[in-house]
Amino acid sequence: MYRTQLILILLSIFLSFQTLAQTSLKKYVSLTVLGKAKETENMFHRVDTTKYPLIPKSVKYLLTNSAGLFVSFKTNSTSIAAKWCTSDKKSSSNMTAIAYEGLDIYIKKDGKWQFAGVGRPGTKSCSESVLVSNMDSSEKECLVYLPLYDETKSLEIGVDENAKISENTNPFQKQIIVYGSSIVQGASASRPGLAYPSRLSRNTGLNFVNIGVSGSAKMEKEVADMVSEMPGDVYVLDCVPNSSPAEIKERTKYLVKKIRSSNPIAPIIIIQTIVREHGYFDKSVGLRVQQQNEEIKRQLEELVKESVKDLYFISADNLLGNDHEATTDGTHPNDLGFDRMIQKFQPEILNVLKKHKII
Amino acid sequence: MYRTQLILILLSIFLSFQTLAQTSLKKYVSLTVLGKAKETENMFHRVDTTKYPLIPKSVKYLLTNSAGLFVSFKTNSTSIAAKWCTSDKKSSSNMTAIAYEGLDIYIKKDGKWQFAGVGRPGTKSCSESVLVSNMDSSEKECLVYLPLYDETKSLEIGVDENAKISENTNPFQKQIIVYGSSIVQGASASRPGLAYPSRLSRNTGLNFVNIGVSGSAKMEKEVADMVSEMPGDVYVLDCVPNSSPAEIKERTKYLVKKIRSSNPIAPIIIIQTIVREHGYFDKSVGLRVQQQNEEIKRQLEELVKESVKDLYFISADNLLGNDHEATTDGTHPNDLGFDRMIQKFQPEILNVLKKHKII
């Protein structure tokens, strides 16, 4: 018995030293947080909501979540670590903690961004994690994505003590504002960089800005004003899932016209809501989705009749495939669902950009 | 201020009544737990490990996790709920709580199993959740999968008070034993029924039995003896990820020969380990995977030379696609990764079954 205890004590001392060796022989730096529509006072917030006092509280709160934000740097370190703090909130049942309050890293390889590792959050609000190690010492371009569903309070990137690290500019060109629901914010991607706007950015080299506000994308007038003031080459509106048919009827035109008046030539792309997979059985859910999608189509047709130009429409047909396995909980796409959405979205969005000579 | 508090109190009372209305006006029943290789004393355990005193502690523990287990029933209820208890453990950072300690339900529709909803675990060890509601009252065949990574302590299915519910037999034919790592157990599927053996069962109508034991699939002699005693029409060995090259060299032949001696005609399918996505940068991880896969191939070739018949091999080539987005954390496939694995596994496994006239 004593022998077992002794072995356990020695093992825990060994493991502590190992963790220390892995994470603490590093120099840590703070880097500029990128991926926002405009600069913000608090570098970890997506929008300075103090400038928009009338937007709903839930939207204000959700814009403190760091969905879509990232840091960009070059380093020749063989190992990359991070220390970060978030709020005390814990992950929701339909998300991994890595996606909700963790990190992931991508490294440029043969001209493409390639996944290299994750930052696993611990049980407390501050975590330290090695993202990737045992690499060669060539200089690499790196992106680290911040937590999707938590407020990031601090972030430092750690490299080998003798390694070089320098801040890099935002590698993505142009600016595409994506305003939408939890699906835009990233529920239920399995890690931060798999939220669909971020995947589109890495795939295309274009800057898709995540203005996903969980269950609160309801096109309120004050939010429409805020979105319209974000400088954009294109606006993608994926806000149908959260809005009732009545809200879609009341609010779509104001949102679209407001964006158009602030941005006379930017194409506006409206996306129908994806099906809710449990809605095939739950008749009330199924009916709501059908009514939402009919109403948004009607609004778009009326806007076209009213001569609002450069509007585009992505229908919900087959967005999630036909095997019913592409959501986590019936509502939120899993990574299979996001992959299917991207296969449809990406060429349609790129076609619009080409047509308008934006790329 | 008082007014706000009063509104909050009234709202919380209203919500409590609503939850009560949704979940408690139900009759609850216990059902036989299916999906095991053999009957067990504790109906929620996958194997009676008391019969195998010499298997490693970690394997004993992991076989108490309810991965791959399910209940099967018919009901005309318009709403289906569940009450269940698990251990006090909480989800790991690379899994959703729904997958780790929650439930999901599938309903037969047009001859196919179709996802219909999830059981969301709460913060305590016992939960109550409506899986699906607002359905028509036709009789339906249903499957509810149990938590992948926790020990289930109890499970009751709830239906409308005036509805009928009756136990159904296991809808899957034959028995295919899948012995393997965390990837077999279901990390990082986003809900229980998306673990790959369960998806294969629903896709094919065949009973794929989940003997995934997280990080502990190391082919120990005592575990090999246990697996060989599980009655199977086919054995799938996906245990390379957890075994070191030396363990693969030492242990593969004993495992395969033991299964063959207990089951003279059952085909045995050996799968190479999927790539570890961070191993493209982490040279030490990359090298280990390469050595594991070379060693398992060598062992298989030697077994064939030693005249062990009916061995099959699934290579790791392109199991996860080539965009490096198909894992949650570099090691564990996300649902996109599982989908790609299934696209390769399913036809290869079905071909073996057809060749041997098992189907």
Written overview of the protein:
2 copies of one chain form a homodimer. Chain A has 359 residues and is of the alpha/beta class. Chain A has 2 domains: 26-167, Jelly Rolls; 173-355, Rossmann fold. In chain A, 32% of the residues lie in helices and 24% in strands. Chain A is built from 9 helices and 14 strands. The first copy, chain A, has helices at residues 2-23, 57-62, 97-101, 182-185, 196-204, 221-228, 245-262, 283-305, 335-355; strands at 26-29, 70-75, 80-86, 103-109, 112-119, 126-132, 140-145, 152-160, 165-167, 173-180, 206-212, 234-238, 268-271, 311-314. In chain A, strands 5-4-7-2-9 form a 5-stranded antiparallel beta sheet. The first copy, chain A, has a 5-stranded parallel beta sheet with strand order 11-10-12-13-14, sandwiched between helices. Chain A is globular. The model of chain A is unreliable at 4-23 (pLDDT under 50).
Q: Which SSEs are present, and which pair or pack?
A:
The structure is a homodimer of 359-residue chains.
Chain A: H1 2-23, E1 26-29, H2 57-62, E2 70-75, E3 80-86, H3 97-101, E4 103-109, E5 112-119, E6 126-132, E7 140-145, E8 152-160, E9 165-167, E10 173-180, H4 182-185, H5 196-204, E11 206-212, H6 221-228, E12 234-238, H7 245-262, E13 268-271, H8 283-305, E14 311-314, H9 335-355
Parallel strand pairs in A: 10-11, 10-12, 12-13, 13-14
Antiparallel strand pairs in A: 1-8, 2-7, 2-9, 3-6, 3-8, 4-5, 4-7
Helix pairs in contact in A: 5-9, 6-7, 7-8
Q: What is the CATH H-level superfamily of the largest domain in chain A?
A: SGNH hydrolase
Q: SS-based structural class of chain A?
A: alpha/beta
Strand runs of chain A, count: 14
Global morphology of chain A: globular
Multimerization state: homodimer
Look at the structure and give the CATH class of the largest domain in chain A.
Alpha Beta
GO molecular function, one term (chains A, B): hydrolase activity, acting on ester bonds
Protein name (chains A, B): Hydrolase
Pfam families (chains A, B): GxDLY, Lipase_GDSL_3
Domain SGNH hydrolase-type esterase N-terminal (chains A, B): 32-165
